[in-house]
Amino acid sequence: MLNVVIFGAPGSGKGTQSDLIIKEFGLEHISTGDVLRAEIKEGTELGKIANDYISKGQLVPDELIIDMLANVLDSKENSKGVIFDGFPRTIPQAEALKKMLNERGTDVTLMINLHVEEGELINRLLERGKSSGRSDDNIDTIKSRLEVYHSQTAPLAEYYIKEGKHHTIKGVGTIEEIFERIKERIKERINIHL
Ligand code: AMP
């Protein structure tokens, strides 16, 4: 299986690039943010709990996310591979992902770390906020999300460097230019595994 973790700060373009990667490589998409927003819309117990965290720009507790991920992963069992978008966001989530994939006879193939500087991230998120209808695309919540990213999520880069799977990609330029950079890295990685 080709399992790609797409990583980066809020607004770095993970969702946009995921769509292109999926089309090119025929992967399934798992976005924990999308799954949580669907739970909120349906008014489930998990959705109610998640909503409190999301609207404050904080992370939903690991246990809830890991259980949710395991359920979603089982529904993708017969796929060519999965792109993980917005997951993992903490070291315990990365360890849990490795365990879940190993139990299914596979592993993370590579991690793509989209790098975009802070001013650009804030501009993009404010722009998206005009049409996204997302409760967390406003300036106060954006600032919390960026703080949470730096303190809890960014250290994950180190985890994937140690695993030998980390690739930094410059996340500025046109959508197509950025995708070309990503595609090249994925193809290199596939060749190594052949
Ligand atoms: P996203 O759509 O990936 O930007 O996620 C939106 C929000 O959902 C985040 O700010 C978190 O509150 C929550 N969330 C999404 N994925 C995770 C995760 N892997 N761990 C914890 N919280 C998450």
Q: What is this structure, in a nutshell?
A:
This protein has 194 residues and is α/β, with parallel strands linked by helices. The protein has one domain: P-loop containing nucleotide triphosphate hydrolases (Rossmann fold), CATH 3.40.50.300.
Q: In words, what does this structure look like?
A:
The chain is an alpha/beta fold and 194 residues long. The protein has a single domain, classed as Rossmann fold, CATH 3.40.50. 60% of the residues lie in helices and 12% in strands. The protein contains 9 helices and 5 strands, in the order E-H-E-H-H-H-E-H-E-H-H-H-E-H. The protein has a 5-stranded parallel beta sheet with strand order 2-3-1-4-5, with helices on both faces. The site of adenosine monophosphate has 17 residues, from helix 2 and helix 3.
**Total helical elements:** 9
Number of domains: 1
Q: What does the largest sheet look like?
A: 5 strands, parallel
* Strand segment tally: 5
CATH fold-type name: Rossmann fold
The secondary-structure element order is EHEHHHEHEHHHEH
Q: How far from one another are the termini?
A: 12 Å
Estimate the strand proportion: 5-15%
Radius of gyration: 16 Å
- Give the CA-based shape: globular
Do you know the CATH architecture?
3-Layer(aba) Sandwich
Q: Which ligands occur here?
A: adenosine monophosphate
Question: Keywords for this structure?
Answer:
single chain; about 190 residues; alpha/beta; 9 helices; 5 strands; binds adenosine monophosphate
Strand and helix layout:
Blueprint: E1 4-8, H1 14-25, E2 28-31, H2 32-42, H3 45-56, H4 62-74, E3 82-85, H5 91-103, E4 110-115, H6 118-132, H7 139-153, H8 156-162, E5 166-170, H9 175-193
Parallel strand pairs: 1-3, 1-4, 2-3, 4-5
Helix pairs in contact: 1-9, 2-3, 4-5, 6-7
Bound molecules: adenosine monophosphate.
Adenosine monophosphate binds at residues 10, 32-33, 36, 53-54, 57-60, 65, 86-87, 89, 93, 136, 145.
